[in-house]
Amino acid sequence: MKVGTPVLLSGPFGRFTADVALTEKRLFIAGGVGITPIRTLIEEALGQEKDSVLLYANRNEDDVIFMKELAALKQKGLKLVPVFSSPSAGFKGETGYVDGERIKRLVPDFIERDVYICGPQPMMDGVVADLRLSELPDEQLHFERFALHN
Asked: Residue 89, CB half-sphere, CA atoms under 13 Å: how many?
């Protein structure tokens, strides 16, 4: 870029923070690198002793980032449920994709929680759509997109 080239800058627009929470419980749903903003929210929630569940979607065990940090958060009370779409042979956990039915099965009290979602756009679109069809109040649904538009 040459000196004098005009650029457009803008500040943070999101409200993907604990300040928007309305309940005392949290459900975090992350896909891949979407764990990045979620991790900070989990640390904050656990520091306030909030009941916290993380559904963390990845292709397989090798794709999980922050493994050591997540293990430490489990020791502080986080209920971690990995969901792998292409797990290695012998994996005995949740396989497939995160969707409304899986959320209802794994976190039956999800409507009593603030739900934070961040991940790949197709995952987020599906999960948000499923949750909007549920009894979860829209004010308890928070999601972060890695784009400036919908």
From this structure: 0
